[in-house]
Amino acid sequence: MTTKGVPRTGLGRLTVSTITPYVVGAAVTGGAFLLFKDSFADVIATHFTLDGASDGFHSPEAAFGLYLMIFGIEAAGSVAALLSIKGPRTGGSVAALSWGLSAATAYLFVVVMQASTDLQGGAAQLPSYQLAIGVVVGLAAGGAAWLIGRRRA
């Protein structure tokens, strides 16, 4: 059924399409965790200052749990945004936001894990340009999802 030329999509399907990007992001992060796991020290950097110095640390397993929790929080926020839409729900904007946010988050988590490998006693450093790259990755993924959604409509 359409309302003013906008096709309506079932709420269940929209919810799944909103959560899927976070499941994919968590899977990518999990794959990177398995790839880097053997090269982590007892604790890894999980927080960095704006100049790239590490200032927060957790065990690798706890860090991975925090990463998954963040994807869950982002998914819950996106579903809440979807449910708050008044009028016909097409979900295109929320899906694009979800893909962009999950891509940026996954990118940053993978970069943080990579920065915590093979330190040989040194402190983890995260170049500040990585945050900007994360934003670009998120914008590209969100923009691509939005364009694909527009073509399907």
What does this structure look like?
With 153 residues, the protein is mainly alpha-helical. 64% of the residues lie in helices and 9% in strands. It has a two-stranded antiparallel ribbon with strand order 1-2.
Give descriptors for this structure.
mainly alpha, two-stranded antiparallel sheet, two-stranded antiparallel ribbon, 4 helices, elongated
Topology (elements, then pairings):
Layout: E1 2-3, E2 6-7, H1 11-36, E3 44-48, E4 54-58, H2 60-83, H3 92-115, H4 129-152
Antiparallel strand pairs: 1-2, 3-4
Helix pairs in contact: 1-2, 1-3, 2-3, 3-4
Gap between N and C termini: 13 Å
Strand content: 5-15%
What is the number of strand segments?
A: 4
Structural class: mainly alpha
Strand order of the largest sheet: 1-2
- Low-pLDDT stretches are none
Helix content: 55-70%
Described by strand count, sense and barrel closure, the largest sheet is: 2 strands, antiparallel
SS element count, helices:
4
Summarize the helix and strand pattern as letters.
EEHEEHHH
* Average pLDDT metric: 85
**Rg over alpha carbons:** 18 Å
Shape: elongated
